[in-house]
Structure formats: C-alpha cells, structure tokens
Amino acid sequence: MMSNEILSQSEIDALLSALSTGEMNAEELKKKEEEQKVKVYDFKRALRFSKDQIRSLTRIHENFARLLTTYFSAQLRTFIQISVASVDQIPYEEFIRSIPKMTILNIFEIQPLEGRVLMELNPNIAYAMMDRVLGGMGVSMNKIENLTEIEKRIISNVIEKSLENYREAWSTILEIEPTMLEFEINTQFLQMVSPNETVVVISLNTQVGETSGMINLCIPHVVLEPIISKLSVHYWMQSSRKEPNPLETKLLQSKIKKAEVPIVAELGKTDITVQDFLELQIGDMIRLEQSVSEPLTIKVNNVPKFFGQPGKLNDRMAVQILDMIKRGDMEDEF
Prior knowledge:
The chain has helices at 9-21, 26-37, 51-76, 92-98, 123-133, 149-169, 221-224, 233-240, 246-257, 274-278; strands at 80-91, 102-111, 117-121, 177-186, 198-208, 211-220, 263-266, 296-300, 303-313, 316-324. The chain folds into two domains: 45-240, Chemotaxis protein chec (3-Layer(aba) Sandwich); 259-328, SpoA-like (Surface presentation of antigens (SPOA)), CATH 2.30.330. It is extended and about 95 Å long. It contains ten helices and ten strands. The protein has a six-stranded antiparallel β-sheet. α3 packs across α6 (149-169) and α5 (123-133) packs across α6. It is α+β, with helices and mostly antiparallel strands. Residues 255-325 form the Flagellar motor switch protein FliN-like C-terminal domain.
C-alpha cells in the first residue's frame, strides 16, 4: 500500500533535483520503499479480531457489567460496582499464565454457539460474595485450597444465576442460552482450547463492599467465529434500522385503538378575582368570553383537537364535530 502523505511543492522540487543530479538513485528509492512495507508479525499472537469487532464486544460487555451491577446489588444487598477495564485478544496460554494458579473458575457454554467460555473470579471477590450470601458483612478471606463442598456450591450458584444477565447482554446480536458446565479452582486441570488459540479476554473491575478485584471472561475465537460478521458497526446499524414486524404493528394499532382518552367540550372560559369567587351565591351569573355564535373547542386528553357545536341526540346532550384544529389555530389562546 502506498503512503498517503502529501508532499509540498518545495519537497517535490528537492526530490526531483536529487534524482537529476545523481544524489539519489531511483532504484535505491524503490528498494527503500519496499523495505518500509515489511512489518514484523508474531504468529503466536495472531490478531484474528478487527478493532471494529473488539469495539462491539466491548459494548456487549459494558452492558453486561451494568446488568451484573444491578443483579449483584439486589442479591447481596451491599455496594457493588462493576465496569469494563479492558478487552484484549491474546493466546490462550498467555491468559492462563496471567491468572492465579488457584482461583475461582466457572466454565459454561452459550448455545447455539459451540465451545466453552470461562469466567474467572478473583478469590477475594468470590469470598466477599459468599460471606454476604451467608449473612456476613462481605469480609474477604484467603482459603482457596480449603473450600468445602458447600462453599463451592454457594459460589457456583451465585455465578450460575448471574448468567441470565449474559443472555440479555447478547440479545442485540444473538439469542444465546448460557449453561453452567464445570466449577474448578486449579488452572492445571483446565484445558479449553490449544495453547496458541486466540481468545478474547474481557476484564471487569469489581467492587464488592470494601473488597475489590477482577472478573475475567475468556472467549475462544472458535466460539465467536460463526457470528464474527455480526460483530461490526455495519451489522449494528442494519439491526437498528430493521423494519418492524407487520403482525406486531397491527397488534399495537389494535391496542391503541382500544385505549380510553378523556374528551372535553369547552363551553367557554373567563377570569374572575378571588374576591368575586368567594362572594359567589346560588343564582349568580358568570359571563363567559365565548360567544354563542363561535364553535366550541373540543379537547382530547387536555389537548385542543376539534371545533364543534353543542346539540342534542336522542334527548341526550351531544357535540357535533365541525372541523379539526390545525397547528397554529390555537396559538392565540396560549
């Protein structure tokens, strides 16, 4: 790809002068340009997601972080704050080396996508959550190697129930069904994909009461490969502009037609002082500003919509609509 840099006229003149005087050889210039095209590429750190796709994954998990904040706040009844810290694509083995050897590992699948997704919780966060579930103050502790079966089950249940929020976070792209598969604490017994497989790691800053730590989500490329085309701005824009379902539109119209709204035929109005109002007696007459020859204003939900005239229909009071009020007709009244 040629450079898009624009040269000034003086730079062009200097370049032509150097070529004509022999100070610069055209072949050398071409060779130098070709050398500049060469870039170092590390196949162990293959970038298989574009920046556009990473941004889409970031948006999805920012929504997930907001949903988790609300969910855990309600479940644990303490201060919870969760936000996306980073979204990176790295080899799987690099991710495993970056987390503690003994930690909280939750493996789940997201049907209809194939493969497994890993959610890693910092033990401090997991213990604080467990303490709140058991009625404590949310105090953290360090006993990762001595977790009882009951404690493992409590932590696993808290995470499993939170996966409904993951389904909702993905709903704009794909309807998924997250299902918990395994609970593990030792990374040595965890091998989801090959060591060099590219994975997306979403790190969530998490605050539970006075305890802070990280929640990491690890999604292998092979899981996202079937929907990789949907992780683009073009797809998001198309989705936002999609036509409404005709059946849903028809149902909505029928519901709106059955909605009840108040209609008032205003005979007229006037202004009086508070003193006159307090002195009103039975039989007193209040003169309205509305002339009998002028049409009445008919209001729908307190908004002027029609002109009409009073009358009777089958011995009952009625109002006949004469015309619709167009925008600007009532400006003098406001």
